[in-house]
Amino acid sequence: MGRDASATRERLIEAGTRLFAEHGIDAVRVREINTEAGQRNSSALHYHFGSREGLLQAILAEHREPVERYRTELLDALEREGRTDDLRALVATMVLPLMAELSTESGRAYLRIIPQYIGRYSPSFSKLPKSYGPDGIRRTVALAVACLGHLPDDERETRVDLTMEYVTYAVARRARDIDEGVPLRLPEERFVSAVLDLAVGGLGSAVTFDAPPGHLPAGVTGQYPPTD
Questions:
Q1: Region 82-101: what's the mean pLDDT?
Q2: Which residues have CB under 8 Å from 165's CB, separation 6+?
Q3: 75: which residues sit within 8 A by CB, 6+ positions away?
Q4: Is 28 left (phi over 0), alpha (psi -120 to 50) or beta?
């Protein structure tokens, strides 16, 4: 790819990242992205990415590489230390690589795009295909699931998926607050600690869905949907 083509591709990625984050991955038109990237040729995006979806995948892949590389480094360190059964440390490998993206404008835009992507496709983090990219998150999920032996298989996988969704939404919210100049209630270290506390507590708590009536408030059966 020539220098001009590479520069055009990069401008389209930058424009798409910014517009997708601010207006939504389903609300932005191809024409708007071409215009934001300074492209007079209305087919520029299609030439380089095939479609708006192709551009979205390129944006996700570009940021996924450093995120997963950092995650892999954290996991390798846990393995060397013999701490792959430390649930809090494993959840930290979910959180810290995303937090690192807060330091740049494009990183924050990426974080704001992820929940939109999850909301559209509802991926199962326990069953991510190889085409997703590096093995970092798959290793994290597999090890986290292994730590939850007190739960049924379907419960473990569901909780891991919910935890990943919670983490991505929490960090995306912080990215938006930073971009919009909203005062941050917690400094970074305390924010990370709060996210970890909630995630670990939710992952490891006992199953209470079938709790006997005596363990629930009066009038609550523990059944859903409620019975008459």
A1: 96
A2: 115, 118
A3: 84, 93, 136, 139, 140, 143
A4: beta
167 close to 95: Cβ distance less than 8 angstroms: yes
Give the model confidence (pLDDT) of 20-70 as tens digits.
999 999 999 999 999 999 988 888 999 999 999 999 999 999 999 999 999
What's the CA gap between 72 and 47, in Å, rounded? Answer: 34
The amino acid at 42: S
Backbone angles phi, psi at 217, to 5 degrees: -60, 155
> Which two tokens mark 82?
């013999």
Token reading at 8: 């055009």
Give me the helix-helix angle, 136-146 and 52-81, nearest 10°.
50
Task: Say whether pLDDT at 194 is over 90.
Answer: yes
pLDDT the model gives residue 224:
46
Quote helix, strand, coil % in the chain, to nearest 5: 70, 0, 30
Domains of the chain, residue spans: 60-205
> What is the C-alpha to C-alpha distance for residues 146 and 143, in angstroms, rounded to an integer?
5
Quickly count: other Cβ atoms within 10 Å of residue 67's Cβ. 23
The rounded distance, in Å, linking the Cα atoms of 125 and 166 is: 13
Return the pLDDT at 71: 96
Quote the pTM value. 0.85
